[in-house]
Design goal:
The chain is α/β, with parallel strands linked by helices. Helix content is about 35%, strand content about 20%. It has a domain of about 210 residues: Rossmann fold (3-Layer(aba) Sandwich), CATH 3.40.50. The chain has a seven-stranded parallel sheet, sandwiched between helices. Strands 7-9-11 form a three-stranded mixed sheet. A two-stranded parallel sheet has the order 8-12. Helix 4 links the parallel strand 4 and strand 5. One of its GO terms (molecular function) is aldehyde dehydrogenase (NAD+) activity.
């Protein structure tokens, strides 16, 4: 099993942080890039924080010297400026991967799949953009393929976990971090399934794949199954069980987003993703299971309980 030195971009975020901590636990030496490493190091997570900007190729190349794995888990917060920032940041990581001959790991998602992929797309399903962010995601994957660097793409559903950031539907819509759960805002359509991914399971999957570097093709891509909510109600039911009682369910105010867009730029970005709550898209993990034998999977109730505890949403009695 392979270990070595890994550089993580986005280690203060949900996915990057989870992967960095899991790599560290498995014996990797983990560097984390940050513009203010002193402030980031206060998390006391044992990472080797180095100064640098993910937009500056020279910074990323220098930080990646001697690394065998680069985790590109950095994104502009709140979907802002994706069209302007995402590809240049990836180009910097590609340059670092080429300079250090490191595997470049890119966390992916369902945005790359449209109607022509069907309701259960596999890792090699056709990719047709449904949204502007979908087109950017497809461009990112194409950039990796065209670069020739060794790369690994792991696509997963909507993230939730103990350190989920505001980019997650779970922590920005369903519940309010730091507050007891008395109501849940449900963005889904009753009866329509939705795919979720528990961050520790995502991190475990990525680390297990990275540890088998010698068996990976030059360009490797896998889909995760994660947690499939078949009718859009099971996640809310798990939240209710975790807090020890019934919770009131509020409908997400989709109709108000066009009115809010002039004052709240994120409203437009959120509205663009509504199709994922109106159509059941369930990515298949066949290739992943064949390669690993099984997908890391934490039971839903345990995953939800740990997530709510990490977000400060559980009382002592719960």
């Amino acid at each position: 099993m392979t270990t070595g030195t890994a550089l993580v971009l986005g280690a203060t975020g949900g996915v990057g942080g989870a992967v960095a901590r899991r790599l560290k636990a498995e014996g990797w030496t983990v560097r984390a890039l940050h513009r203010d490493p002193g402030r980031a190091a206060r998390a006391a997570d044992g990472l080797d924080w180095v100064r640098g900007d993910a937009m500056v190729a020279a910074d990323v190349v220098a930080a990646a010297a001697g690394a065998s794995l680069i985790v590109h888990a950095v994104n502009p917060p709140g979907y802002r400026d994706w069209d302007r920032l995402v590809l240049p940041m990836l180009d910097a990581s590609i340059a670092a991967s080429r300079a250090s001959d490191a595997r470049l790991l890119l966390p992916g998602n369902v945005y790359v799949y449209g109607r022509d992929a069907g309701p259960n797309p596999g890792a090699d399903a056709p990719q047709a953009p449904r949204t502007a962010k979908g087109r950017i995601r497809i461009a990112m994957e194409a950039r990796l393929r065209d670069s020739g660097v060794r790369s690994l793409i792991v696509r997963a559903g909507d993230f939730f976990g103990p350190r989920t950031t505001a980019n997650s539907w779970f922590s920005s819509a369903l519940v309010r971090p730091g507050r007891p759960v008395r109501s849940v805002t449900g963005p889904g359509t009753p009866g329509i399934g939705h795919q979720w991914a528990y961050l520790p399971d995502v991190a475990e999957t990525m680390v297990r794949l990275s540890a088998r570097e010698a068996e990976l093709p030059r360009l490797a891509a896998f889909n995760m199954e994660g947690h499939w909510d078949p009718d859009g109600r099971q996640m809310i039911a798990a939240i209710a069980r975790a807090v020890g009682g019934r919770v009131r369910v509020r409908r997400f105010p989709w109709a108000l987003l066009p009115l809010a867009a002039p004052f709240w730029p994120l409203a437009r970005e959120i509205r663009e993703m509504r199709y994922l709550w109106r159509e059941p898209i369930r990515m298949r993990n066949d290739d992943l299971v064949r390669f690993l034998g099984a997908e890391p999977h934490t039971p839903l109730d345990e995953a939800v309980r740990e997530t709510l505890a990490g977000l400060g949403c559980l009382s002592a009695s719960a």
